[in-house]
Structure formats: C-alpha cells, structure tokens
Fold these 3 entries.
Entry 1:
Amino acid sequence: MNAPTMLDPALASRFAEIVGERHALRDEAEIAPYTVEPRGLFGGPAALVLRPCTTEEVSRILGLASETGTPIVPQGGNTGLVGGQMPDSTGGEIVLSLSRMNRIREFDLSSNTVTAEAGVVLQTLQQEVAAKDRLFPLSLASEGSCQIGGNLSSNAGGIGALAYGTARDLCLGLEVVLPTGEILDDLRKLKKDNTGYDLKNLFIGAEGTLGVITAAVLKLFPKAKGRELAWAAVASPIAALRLFEAANDRAGNALTAFELMEQTPLNFVLKHMPASKPPFAKSYLWHVMIEVSSGRSAEDAQSLMEEILGQGLEKGWVADAVIAQTVAQAAQLRRLREGMSEAQKMEGGSIKHDVSVPVAAIPEFIARAGKVAQEVLPGCRVVCFGHMGDGNLHYNVSQPVGMDKAVFLSHYKAMNEAVHAVVRTFGGSFSAEHGIGRLKREELVATQPAIATDLMRRLKQTLDPKGIMNPGKVI
Ligand code: ZN
C-alpha cells in the first residue's frame, strides 16, 4: 500500500533514480518509522524517504528539489524532541535520511580530530574514538541512536557540555550541501581560522533549515586517566550552587559533570526502572551528581572528589554522599539521572521546559517558577532536573495524580508562558539544548527581538530562496 502523496509520480521516480529504487522508500510500512517522533506530538505522511549514500547523491537530490520546488526534511537518528525532523501533514514532503552516510573518513591523532559523516551514530563514534585512546565528549541519553549530523544541526548539549561545550564547540569543519545542490567543502581541522565569516556556525544549530550537513571534522580529547562519580544529597538549590562553585574552584576543567535534581524525578526512576536502587536509605529533597575526570591519575581524581565533598560536608551544604567504588556502581548512579525523562513518561502527561538561566540565578529561578506553576495548575508536580553547571534545567511538570491527561495537557501553553516569563526575567533562554523545530517556532517569533527574527529570515531567504529546506521549522 502506498502512502498518500502529493508528489508527482514521475518526479518521485526522478528522485528515486538518484539513490536507487532500493533506497527510495514509498511503501507506507517502510516509511512509518521516519514519520513518528519520540514524543508523538508531530509527524505526518511523507511522499518519499530517500536514503543517499554519498555527498554527491545529496547534492543531486537538493539540486532537483530546488529546480522543482520540492520540500525536503533532513533526518538523522530521529531522536529530536521539538519535531524538527518530522514531515508536515500534507504528504508532499520528502524525508532525507542521512543514516547510510555512516563512514568515519579519517582519524588524525596528531591534530586530535576525526572526520565523520552525518549518519555516524554518536555511540559508535565514541567507541571508535575510545579504541584510538581518545575521547569524544558529547554524551546524551539518546546516544545509542542519535547521529552526528543531527547532533550538529540541533547543537546538542548534554551532560559533558560543562567541561567540553556543546556540539558547536566540538566542531572544527563542516561539509554542507546547500539548498541549491552546491557543496560547501569546509572540512578544515584548524583551531585558528579567521578567514572571513564563520560559515560553518550558520549551519550548526540551524536544524536543517539552511542546508544539509553531510560530514564534519570533530575535536578529540585525551582519555581521562582517572574518573570519579559521586551522588550527594544537598540541603537546597542554594547549597547546590555553593557546592558547584567550590567544585569549580577545586577541579576547574576536571569537573566534567554537575547535575542537579529533585527527589521527585528520582522517585519516578526508582518506581519505574526495575533494577534501580536508591543512593541513600533516607529520602532528601535535592540531589547532585558530580563527575571529576583527571588527565593525570585515578588518585588525582579521587582526591579532588574527596576534597569537594569534604568541603561540602564541612560547610553543611551536603547532607549525605556516596562515591561510586566500581565502574558498575558509577553506571548505576548515571542511570538514575539518565532515566529521569523516560521514567517521567510513566507518570502521565508532562509539560516540558528546556530552559537556561545564568548559573547564579538557578536557586531563585526554581523558587519563582515553582510558585507560578502552582498558580497555573494547583497540585501539579514539578519535576526539575538538569545540567546545573550549564544553567540548563529540564523544568518539567507532571500532571496532578488522578487528573485526566488531556485536561492536564490543555494547560500546556499557559504553563509554558508562565515559566518562560520567569526565565526571561533572568535573561535566560526558553530553548537551551533541544532546539526550536516546530514546537517552539511561534514562541521564538513572539518573544525574540524583531531585529533578530528579521535577520534570521533574511539569512534563510539568502541561502534558501525557494524555501525547500525543512519548511515550517525554526523561523
Ligand atoms: Zn539535557
């Protein structure tokens, strides 16, 4: 059975010819996985899914799309949380899957770089790099299926951003196919390069609206010689902030994670993830997960961690703490943090906020956002966790126990507006690490300075005059 299509069959055949019939999916069942996303909020039928294998093929696809005005939706591992990788409901868009472009083209260990194609799965890259005794520090809950092209297109963040930056900071060069089909080969390995405008940074974080990233030069780092992971109960978000400052002061760049979470999401994980164990016998309101990585030795990492926690206990910021004694224990603690999004799903409807504020403002943000959330919907359960060291919180709200899910979700917009208004008072961002996609497009236009959105539109018009690249996303 064929998918509903507005695409002329003769034109579909011209597209299919470029990649070969086997890699041009038209059957509804084959297309289905490309048209649903993790949250189930977006998605529609696609006219065709094309799976090119080379940059040349991508170039020919976009050239034809440009000539015929056919909309193209680039897609990586399909783990995006804002609908940026989804076709619309018209059935006339083509999904361009980069999955088959999954080669690692080159390691350059003297320059500490790897050149990888867009479809390389993040975890595969991490493993290949580790086998060369190096580290690629981007780390996300979805790393088993997300892909490098998508990571760059959405400027992914995650836990490691604290020490190593976001995907943008990890990229030295790009190969991009422009909407016209032209290829911009900018696969340079240079840390220092001031040759005019920084074009690659236009495409990073653009969510596939300005062109298609087909390959990238990524930075590698030395593997840590010692790593320590600790879980600590803290008295309050202010105590967590003081502990973060102390950890930063002691460990500097060796502080590779500092995560903050409430007891509520931890309870969800303990309740819904079968093998999970509580870190402490007692229940506490607030927790942090700290990771220290030493370039020198295991002993160095250990003593840094002991100093940080020792100071925390002495000052009364830390109520209880546990340092992982084995790799397996560290993995167990990590899973408590990483399982929070998944476990929250089991508690019914969830209203999400992916926000960032200056680190120093986190305690006050939490206090004020908690108040407005209860004003919008008394009894709602705030599920706050995130990357404290980056000022980035996943400030989610679960439905009150027993409430109808649809009734709860009818408060989505009001809740978003109230929480984001608090974010703005701190000069924060309502889109910290997940992007804009379709989910936040209207809000971007409504809340950002007119000159900024106008400039974005002018850039889009210049690079994509036919408007074929991922229409309806970002701007
Ligand atoms: Zn996150």
Note: The chain has four domains: 9-97, 104-222, 226-341, 347-447.
Entry 2:
Amino acid sequence: MELLLKAPKGHELSEYLFSLPFNLYGKAKKVDGTLAVTHSQLIVYIDGDEVERYDFNEFDEYSCEQLIGCSMMVGKHNDRAEKCICAFTQDNFIAFAELCKIINHYLTTGQLVEHSDIDEPKCPKCGLPLDSFTECPYCASKVKTFRKLFARIGKYKWAFSAAIMCTVMSELLNVVTPYINQRLIDDYVWPKNTSNWIGFAVLCASMFLILIINTFLDWANMKASFYVSLNLGQDLRQDVFNKTLDLSMSSISKKTAGDLISRVSNDANKLQSFLTDNGKNAIVRILSLIIVTVIMFVMNWKLALLAIVPIPLVVVIIKRAYNTIQMYYGRSWRFSNAHSKLLHDALDGIRVVKTCGTEDIEIEKYTKASYNAAKASSKAEVVWYFIWPACDFLLTIGNYFVLYFGAMMILQKIPGFGVMTLGELTRFTSYVGMLYTPLRWLMQLPRQLADVSISASKVFEILEENTDVRDAADSVDLDIQGNIAFNGVYFGYKVYNPVLKDVSINLEKGKMYGIVGHSGAGKSTMINLVLRLYDVTQGSVTIDGVDIRKISQESLRSQVGVVLQETYLFEGTVLENLTYAKPNATFEEVVSAAKIAHCHEFITKLPDGYNTRVGNKGHTLSGGERQRIAIARAILHNPKIIILDEATASLDTETERQIQEGLAELCRGRTTIAIAHRLSTLSNADSLIVLDKGRLVETGPHEELMRKKGVYYQLVMAQRKTTKMREATGNPNYVH
Ligand code: ADP
C-alpha cells in the first residue's frame, strides 16, 4: 500500500507528492477520479481534468468517514459544515486515512511528511523494494562498503602484514621453482649430462630448501591468519551485538529478532572469512599475477600475449554475469532472512502453535520459505556454474596456444617466433599455470563479492544506524527523588499520528498514580516516555525538574523499576534472575527482597532452592511465581520510581491478593505509576490520570472522580457491568 498509486490522466506521478484514485464524486456519480497532492494543495481531477483545488489550510481538519458501501474524505471547519472532497470504495480507505493524518499533522506543526509509514520503501535509484534495508544494497557504493570493511583490519595490521609477507615470500619462491626446473632439464636431462653432479646436487638441494622454507612460511601464515580471522570475527559480532542493544525501541521494533540474529551471526561470520581469506589473497594474488606476467613477457612476449589473449573476453562475460548473480544473492538473503524469522517466530510462540495445533501450517510455511531461499541461492549458483566452465575453458585455450607455438619453437618450425629449449618451455608453461591460478581466483571473486556485499550492507546498516534516543553531550547522572512532570507532551510512533496529545501533569515524589483509559488511549505510551524508550515529539518529560533527555540513560534506568504483565526470566537460576539488575547483591539482601515479595517461601520449596534453574523463559514456574520474582527483582533494584504495567492482569484473584502485598511493600515511599485493567486495584492510588484518545481528560483520587461522573466514572460503571454479567452468565470471557 502506498500513497502514490495512480497519476491523473495526462499527468506524471512525479509531479505530485501523493496521488490516490477515487471512483465516486458529487451525488454518488461513478467517475475515474484522482486526488493529487502537492506541497500545499489538494487537486481533484476527473478524467484528467481539474475540477477542484483546495489549499491545505482551507479546512481545519481532514478525516475519512465510512458510509454504507463506500467512504469519503472530508474537510472540516471548526465553525462551519464539512465538505466532501471525494468518495471511494473501501479498499482505498487506509490510504486516504493516512493522507488525512499527514495533512492534519501539517496543519498543526507546519511540517509536511513526504513518505507515509504505509509506503513500502523503495530504492529511489532502481525502484526495488528496500525490504528491511535503509539503503539499497544493490545501489550502495560497493567501494565504500568494502573500504569500511577492510578498515576493520587496521587493528590487526601487524599480524595481517605478517600473513601477507609469508604468502608473498612463498609466492616468490614458487616463481623460482620453474627456473630451477628449467636448469635441471636443459643442463642435465636433455641433453643428458652426468659429469657435473655437484651442480645437479646444488639444484636438487635448492628445490628441497624451497620446500622446507615454504612449509615454514605456510605454518606462520596460517597462525597469523587465524589470529586475525578469529579476532576480526569476534570484534564484528561484538560490535553488531553492542549496537543492537544500543538501538532505540523504535529502531528495534522495525526489525525482527530473526533478522538481528542473522546479522550478528551469519553475516558477521561471512564477513570474517571473506576479510581474512580474500582480503589477504586479493593482495597476494594480484601481486603474483603482476610478477608472473612480467617474467613471461621478459621470457617471450609473443608467447605471453598468446597466453593472455582470452582474458579480456572472460572479464566481459564475468562483468555481465555479476549483476544477475548479485540480484539472486540479494533475493536469497531476503528469503533466508524470512525463513529465519519464521523459525524464530515459531519457536518463540511454540506454546501457541502447540495449543492451536498449527504445527502442520508452520511446517508448511517454513518449508516454503526454506525452499524459496534454497531456490534463489541455487539460481545464483546455476548462473555461476554455467559461466564458470565457459570462462575456464576460454582461459585454458591460451594454454594450448602456448603449448602449440612453444613446441613449434623447439622444433624451429615457425620463422620469426624465435627458438626455445625444452626447459624454457617447461618453465614458461609453469608460469602460465601460475598466471591462471590467480586469474581463476579473481574470476571467482565477483561471485563472492556479490554475496558478501549484501552481508556487509546489512552489518554496516546496524553499525552505522543513528540511535534516535541517545545521551546528550551534557547529560547528567541524576540522584532521582521521584518528581515527574509531563509538560505539553505530544508523542506519536509515527510523527504525523500523535498518540499522546498535549499531556501536562505533575507527579509528586513518593505518591502512587494510576493511569486509566480505554485500550489504545496511550497509557503504556506514557510509561514508555518516562522510561525514555522513545523521545517526545513536542513538549518535555522532566524528573525533578530535569528534562529526561538531559539525564544519562544509565542513571535514569538504574533508578526506575518496572514490573510488566509478562515477566521475562532469563535462562539460569532463580538467584541469577533475582540479581539481574543488581549483580553484586549479597545473598542476605536477595532473601530479604524475596521475603518482602512473598516469594521466599515457594523458592525454598523448589528442588534446588535459589539455585533451581528456571528453564527457558522461566517456564518451570507459574505466572504468579514469575511475577513475584519480578517484584523481588524490582525491590532489590531499589528504584526511586516504580512502574507497574498491568503487573497483575494475568493472575487469578488469590494470587493477585498475595502479589498486591508484595507490590504495596515495593511501592512504599517511591513514586509509583501503575496501569491496571481491573480499575478496583487502582482505587487506593493517590491520584488517577484518565486518558481518552491520547488526551488527559481527568485527574484526581478515585472518590473525587466518581463524584464527578465523567470518563472515569463511565469506565468504572462499564467494568462493574461486565463483572456482573460474567458472574450472571458464568462466562469469564464475557466482554461488555
Ligand atoms: P494503551 O496502553 O492505553 O492500551 P498504548 O499506549 O499501548 O495504549 O497505545 C496507544 C496507541 O499507540 C495504540 O493505537 C497503539 O496501536 C499504538 N502503538 C503502541 N505501540 C506502538 C508501536 N510500537 N508502534 C506503533 N504504534 C504503537
């Protein structure tokens, strides 16, 4: 779905920011219409003719209204009647609704967003979907990417240089070997010569010495290469992992866990082996190519020319194939990413899969994704293995030329080509072989570059991503007291779609506040802002008078404790999970926190007490037990501000009662912000914050709000009615 769907007849899409088709106008007349949007106006076209033009600020607000069978986009005046701009069938509703949000955002802020979030981002150069890339991996400068990649070797330049030196020396020695061969053949084999056995022995000894030195150089080379390779890989994985944890929630939520895992492991590993193997080889192979070519030309330039005749042809073929291969590798990357996403999803939601009995569906989805990945990969390989033998054959033709003309020269059958000894020809053909080895390697290189450049783009995308929630240069470590203030806060996950609108409130230290409102009103969003998981769009959130953008994130989060509806326990022991936020806590402190949270008793009954392993995500414990561990963890953390986000929503009444005691202990003397579905659990809060569609509509204690009979009263009444209906129908899932 996107907002640039169809140009008005006779016009180009590029003339407009957005352009959407509609099919009803006036009195439900069927038309072929287009609503085109420029930087300041909406233009209504019917059959390519302009029929109406509106400045954005001609109306105070734009919205989409659903009618029976169709919808319309309307412009509203605060004081006058609204006007229908155009009407359309339901399939375009989302696009028009998004357009309304964008123009409304422009009317309130003066900023016009040029890309809607429902647009599937495409590369402006090649037009291919960007998928989860921010820069098109096909159009991104490869030179820049590989330069950045090779810059990472800098840290290990000495070991890397040592590996190169060893390989270069070994290659140089290899260049000498054919010369010794030539001497052996020409001086001792043909014509046969047994008189100078000392010379013969010296040549044989030199061959042996070269063998020993080469073995030593290989050993040193491998040692240095391993050192560089292991450390480079470790650095890459570590950097990607560190950066991933450093990303803001909004960046993280745009990527899937499977995608991130694949970048930390697969892509980083691929780059590791590419850098160390090919990085070193590229230097050595090119060097040996130059040396061998020079020697060949010095020996006999005519034969040398014959040897390299097929090379330009091979280069042209490979260059042409490169783009196709790269496209298939990109596709393969996307499919294998999709299949690792599926794998991760299925394993993460294994309980849902099992309880819904959808194993077969998941298996089918996985098989399809995995098949697609394999197919795309095999297409790249098929293209390559079609091209590779052809190129190899072309290269070998050069060798046959050399053999034919070389033999003719020995037999002196081609006048003008010169004369050659058998030893010289043997030496020359050895060099031809040595020329083709780096050439073959270089021919393989584009295929590897195509594959690796995709992984490199993915890894650098993470490494270079700007963290939008970051510590300011002058950020401070604040000793938090617990006074929180929202000052005219506007916030939206999409800039043009505010979730919180003009929220202003002061929360005093040590008091308990409950946030209430309908689902989707923005309660969790308020909490996200206190935790600074996101930055406000407008206004500010302050703690003890300091804007939280000025407080270091480490200092902020170390003084805010959170208990969520779903507690996440890490694989490990109960003790490790309890001390997660305070690893240096003494055992006495842990036990005391566990007692306050009412979990000491059940922990001591576990087979290994505090050392019992909790299993994957704590599945060996009940929901209530996990929740009590989370409360104990928060108590141990000793925060100044406590956030309870539906902390007891998934528990039964008895467990909730037990946990309430723990929570009461936890909240004593600390500023507490709680969200609870069951409004009764918040009635003892010092004050309630009532949100309605992102706006703060009421604040005050429970009794006062009940007397006021406003939004909170309605919410409480609706909930009481639901509870009564549940009791009457005996259906615990009854929803009002
Ligand atoms: P509440 O906690 O009151 O139920 P939330 O604060 O979770 O509501 O959400 C408010 C609105 O913001 C909802 O419309 C929801 O769809 C949207 N929203 C919440 N989280 C995100 C997110 N990460 N990205 C985009 N939209 C979100």
Note: The pocket of adenosine-5'-diphosphate is lined by residues 253, 493, 499, 517, 519-525 (CB under 6 Å).
Entry 3:
Amino acid sequence: MYCGRFAPSPTGPLHFGSLVAAVASWLDARAHGGRWLVRIEDVDEPRCRAEWADAILRTLERLGLHWDGAVVRQSGRKELYHAALERLRQAGLAYPCGCTRREAAGRYPGTCRAGLPPGRAPRAWRFRVPAGRIGFQDRWQGWFEQDVEAEAGDFILLRADGFFAYQLAVVVDDAAQGVTHVVRGADLLDSTPRQLLLQRALGYPRPAYLHHPVATDGEGRKLSKQNRAPALDPARDRENLLAALAFLGLAPPDDLCGAELLAWARGQWVPRLHSLGV
Ligand code: GLU
C-alpha cells in the first residue's frame, strides 16, 4: 500500500517552491490510490515557528490538498530520535565529537572518529559513515550515487545545541510512519545517500524516491525561505495551483478550478511521468 508525505519545515510561510513539492507528492500519492501524510519538520526548533506551521496547513487546506490522519510534528518526537541514536551508538555506528562548528566546517575530516582528543568534551554525535559508494534509482532523476565518506564525511546526528539533525529525524519518521514513497525537490537529492545509509544501519525499509526539479527565481537560485521567496498570495490560490501544475508539466483546460482541477491533474500525473520516460 502506497504511503506518501509532504514534510515542510515551518521556517516561513509556504512559498511557490514548497507548493510544488506539496502538489507533486499529493498527486503521486492520489494517482496511486495511496495515503498522503503531512509532517511538520520543526526539528530545528530555533528556526521554526508554530504560526508558520499553522499557516502552511491552512494554505494546504484552502488549496484542497487534504491529508490523511493526524499531522505529526517532529518537535514532539524526540524520544524516537533518541532511541534510534542509542541503537546506532550501541552498534558502534555513532560517536561523540568535540569539534567546534568552525573546526568541522565542510567535509568532516574524522577528527573524533577514533575517540575524543584529550581535553575535549563531547558536543555533538556523528554517524560513522562506511567507505564506498551508495546509490539508488530515482523515479525522475534516474540513477544517483555518492561516496558519502568522501563528500560529506561522518555527518551529525545530534547537534551541539541539543537538537537532532534533519537526516536522522527524517529517516526515523519515514520508517515509523510507514512511508513507502518519498516525493520532494531535487535540492534534497544529495541528502538521500546519507538517508539510505541511516536506513540500512537501522534496518529500516528503503522507500522509493522521486526528486522533482526545483523552482528557481529569475537568477536561477532555488526558491527558499533563506532567499526570501515570497509567501503565496491567498487571493491567488487558483493561479498558484495552476503555476505549480504548469511547473510540473501539466496544462489543465481553462474551465477547471478547485477540486476538479486537482482531480484532472491526478489523472494526468502517471501519463506525465511516462512522457518523461521515468
Ligand atoms: N523538511 C524538508 C524541507 O522543508 C523536506 C524534507 C523531506 O521532504 O525529506 O526542505
């Protein structure tokens, strides 16, 4: 049974880039007769706000993107992340790191891998990345692989400020919620190999992945809250939905709106993927 999800981080209101991810994941789930969950990824609590989470949910409702079950919030799930970290630690796959952020900027060189250097206190916990390449067949992008050890090094699981890292939380939640299909923007493509390694280490099943192209601004930068992408104008719901569908390659007939528009798009989604040869 297909189970998909939309997992926004409430670091701002919904913008066009995240609307595309919401629409793509909704369409893929509904076209497959599957469930579609919404998970608020507020694990990075200092950057998130409850008002933004509420605003995102209201926008989804207004657009007719209705979800199944209760909305899950990562800020309330720390015990699950803790238990996963503990399992990794017991398996020798997580270790404490005493480096400061500045010392560990970029690819982590493995300074604390063999034990904390003398005089260092543990600050964060890292995953012991195995050597070699790991890859997967993306439903839109095709084959993608990475040498995580060479490109990222041992990455953070629990941050020095006490918050869990996105990479761990997302893997634990996708497994705990029974997510079978992940549909999200291609800006997350190079996070996926790290997530595959964590799934493997924790014995979780691997979902199928589809990374759609991401919307960019006039200068080719990804639309994001960091780049101050504008919030969606509530007075332009139909236009925004049409623009998201057009971005995904769907051109609905003029006379459709609201639920009819989404029902039409749901019927076109699988043919659209086939037309891309994916
Ligand atoms: N929370 C992430 C974001 O808003 C998305 C995570 C995911 O879909 O795996 O960028």
Note: The mean pLDDT is 94.
